[in-house]
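pasting Phenylalanine--tRNA ligase alpha subunit for the record, 362 residues
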Amino acid sequence: MLDFDQVISAIEGAETLEALEALRIQYLGKAGEITGLMKRLGGMSPEERREMGPLFNGYQRDANAAITARKDTLETAALDARLAAETIDLSLPAPATPCGAVHPVSQVMDELAEVFADLGFAVATGPEIEDDWHNFTALNMPESHPARAMHDTFYFPDRNDDGREMLLRTHTSPVQIRSMIQQGAPIRIIAPGRVYRSDSDATHTPMFHQIEGLVIDKGIHLGHLKWTLEAFLKAFFERDDIVLRLRPSYFPFTEPSIEVDVGYSSQGGRRVVGGSGDAPGHAWMEVLGSGMVNRHVIAAGGIDPDEWQGFAFGIGVDRLAMLKYGMDDLRAFFDGDVRWLSHYGFSALDVPTLSGGVGTPA
Ligand code: 2NL
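structre below
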């Protein structure tokens, strides 16, 4: 026969939760000893059952209660032991907070905005989803114009409510068209942002960054363009010995159109901007396109081209970042690899300044 006092003292003396669980199974489990007594009640005569029923039921109830109480005691003791062991040493240095970095494209965009702000330019922005009028037609590129095909445009399947074809802007020029229409002359703006062309290889990504500039005022001429670009490139590259070479070119939206090269030399496998491209050990590198705004474009912007003139320019920001900070593969810009970013990125706490980066070697 079961010695119930011993069952209770075994439960109360269990040293661990595992030992307690073993006792629970031994007495109250499916094949447990108290469970066995309960099963035996079924085979008893009514008299026997009346006598033994309350006794066995009491065993079951009291054993359960003892196990619950012991479990509670053991768990509390385990928690107390853990709390005593896990003290916090407040004198230890705090673990470093994972911190992002500013992407070189964002850094260069900020630097460009700062340089041009010093020259009196405001920053203008606009939609990346455009219609073909703002992206092409207003820029002196009518529907059949071959330059439209040159842009490898991403088109949307549906036209907008005005029946215009919709597309991802291929340059930020539509921002300047919108600014001309909205604010009128005079204008002094830069339009930085993402642009899209269906192009992909080592030097082209389908999305890239551009910054365009537009000045509209009275009596604006090529001299203003050249001075502005020179001042900009000197400030951006933080060097006084920047030499420009202006070459005639063609863009539908400017007349005349001018491509601008800068002199550079190769030092330790890196291109370093500065000096004349004709000097020994130097060469020329194209950095931007520009020109006097075509009178048709000024008119499309709702401004009288007989009264107002202007110049404009367009620069690839990604290429400019590569040049200033020494990255050699454009595709890595948009891979999203944090190792690349921690190598080339800039502290998020930095105030964007011209001298914030590694700069060009002296
Ligand atoms: C390039 C050439 C250029 C412009 C962009 C422009 C904008 C308006 C009117 C006239 Cl609203 N021109 N933009 C002008 C000349 C060149 O970009 O090679 N960019 C990377």
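The chain has twelve helices and 13 strands.
The chain has a mean pLDDT of 91.
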